[in-house]
Amino acid sequence: MKKQCLSFSWKAYSRHTLLLLFLFISTAAPLIIPEIKQQRRQEKDEPFVGVNIGTDITNLLSPENLVSFLKFQKITHVRIYDANQDILEALSGSQIKVIIGVPNNQLLGIGSSNATAAAWIGRNVAAYYPETLISAIAVGDEVLTTIPSSGPLLLPALESLYSALVAANLHNQIKVSTPHAASIILDTFPPSQSFFNQTLSAILLPLIQFLSKTGSPLMMNLYPYYVFMQNKGVVPLDNSLFKPLTPSKEMVDPNTLLHYTNVLDAMIDAAYFSMKNLNITDVVVLVTESGWPSKGDSKEPYATIDNADTYNSNLIKRVFDRVGTPLRPEITSSVFIYELFNEDLRSPPLSEANWGLFYGNTTPVYLLHVSGSGTFLANDTTNQTYCVAIDGVDSRTLQAALDWACGPGRANCSEIQPGENCYQPNNVKSHASYAFDSYYQKEGKAAGSCDFKGVGMITTTDPSHGSCIFQGSKKVSNKTKEVVNSTVASGAADDRLGFIIRGTIPIRIRPTHKALCFFFSFAFYLSCIFSFLL
């Protein structure tokens, strides 16, 4: 009798559970599945910032240490100029996407033999994918402008590699294209009058038609630095560095009346207009190289750390803000910064060895101001970073940020009270810097914790002075550390409600996922009631 009762109860439980699950799936799934698909499409199409990795370095990191460094810096996309097997193996399982390259000296073999192309794909792609996330193949580099005699080989090489990808059933996951120098486009301003160099038309037209057919991007190496250097007195420095402009300093295309606040947008739109002149409008621009040198010789006075920092910081922020271009505001081009490391073995001029964000030993050349863009490239390898108020902000704005940090932000502001160690100098910028750093350290240097609506910046320079010791300083006393740490638990809990914490990146739980959890829980709850009743 007891066994029958238990058996009957379990059958009722199972029957009602299945019924409730069926009702849920039939009613809720049509609402949830499209949103999940849409979310995946959006994640796939989101613009990104990657880095180029050159190897002309005296003491290049081992592939394993290189990948560890990329992870530490939250770098998710890289481009290498060959298909280095050691690097590809080290990237396995890292979730870092990589564009691999076919060197220019291999074009002849691949472009003239399908078998050679198939062997190259088997050896350098199929052998590593999907454990290593190869996203694209860059065939050659600036071939049409550096070795124009090899231009006719480009399209055959692209087609042979694509056919080999099709045979391996990888053509939907891995794109094939070739990076071009900006000089293939003539008259880049105004963009509406731009066109491809007509001497290259016989090569470019079928090549871009191939990109359109295969859904591949037009890879462009775009350097506002060179545009500025070649047009000093015509192109203002501020326009090249993405600095805020007054309307009178914006560049206006007289044919479209589109306003351009920076040189890179104009260069990207020049590529779109050039393709439009070939009746091709469905190919997106991928910026495979862009950057600014931090040091140059006497003929390169604008190759400075400040300019390099400003350009790359603003470039990163612009991509992550997803503002697009004046012509294509709905499309934000992804960008690969040139480059990750200074290549000290490069030949003169001096700037050639000084495009890197880091020295070969992973010490930062400068610390990018990207606090509002997650922790991407904002990590000093010594982990000694501070948050301070930026220069040139009006006192009212700083005061509002200071009030928030010491109030709702629950920063430890006791040291900037009258008579305390950090009260002097008694001005809003100094007090704001102390409060910003207190909040930044309290939050564990988390993504966005040094933003303060754009008035805070991350620095590697210890802002401590005299007896005023900032809370992120190595000099800070144990007593101060205890005070800072005591505020973390109380302040962080409220901020993390509704978030899943994965590393330092907060991911908000989507409403549909909450609904899914609720319906399953509710179904289980009702089925339990039915099982007791029956």
Summarize the structure.
The chain has 534 residues and is α/β, with parallel strands linked by helices. 42% of the residues lie in helices and 13% in strands. The longest helix has 44 residues, at 2-45.
3D structure, described in words:
By secondary structure, the protein is α/β, with parallel strands linked by helices. The protein has helices at residues 2-45, 63-72, 85-90, 107-111, 114-126, 143-146, 151-167, 201-214, 224-230, 237-240, 263-276, 305-321, 395-406, 428-442, 478-495, 511-533; strands at 49-53, 77-80, 97-102, 133-139, 175-177, 180-181, 185-186, 195-196, 218-221, 251-252, 259-260, 285-290, 335-337, 372-375, 386-389, 456-459, 499-502, 505-508. The strands form five sheets. A nine-stranded parallel β-sheet has the order 5-4-3-2-1-13-12-9-6. A hairpin with a 6-residue loop joins strand 10 (251-252) and strand 11. Helix 1 runs antiparallel to helix 16, helix 5 (114-126) crosses helix 7 (151-167) and helix 13 (395-406) runs parallel beside helix 14 (428-442). The radius of gyration is 28 Å and the shape is globular. The model is unreliable at 1-13, 32-43 and 477-520 (pLDDT under 50).
Keywords:
534 residues, alpha/beta, two-stranded antiparallel ribbon, 16 helices, nine-stranded parallel sheet, globular
State the total count of DSSP E strands.
18
Helix content: 40-55%
Spans of at least 5 consecutive residues with low confidence: 1-13, 32-43, 477-520
Q: How many whole angstroms does the radius of gyration measure?
A: 28 Å
Beta-strand proportion: 5-15%
* Alpha-beta content class: alpha/beta
Instruction: Profile the largest sheet.
Output: 9 strands, parallel
Q: Could you state the oligomeric state of the chains shown?
A: single chain
Q: Numbering strands along the chain, what is their spatial order in the largest sheet?
A: 5-4-3-2-1-13-12-9-6
Number of helices: 16
Q: Average pLDDT, to the nearest integer? A: 82
Distance between the termini: 15 Å
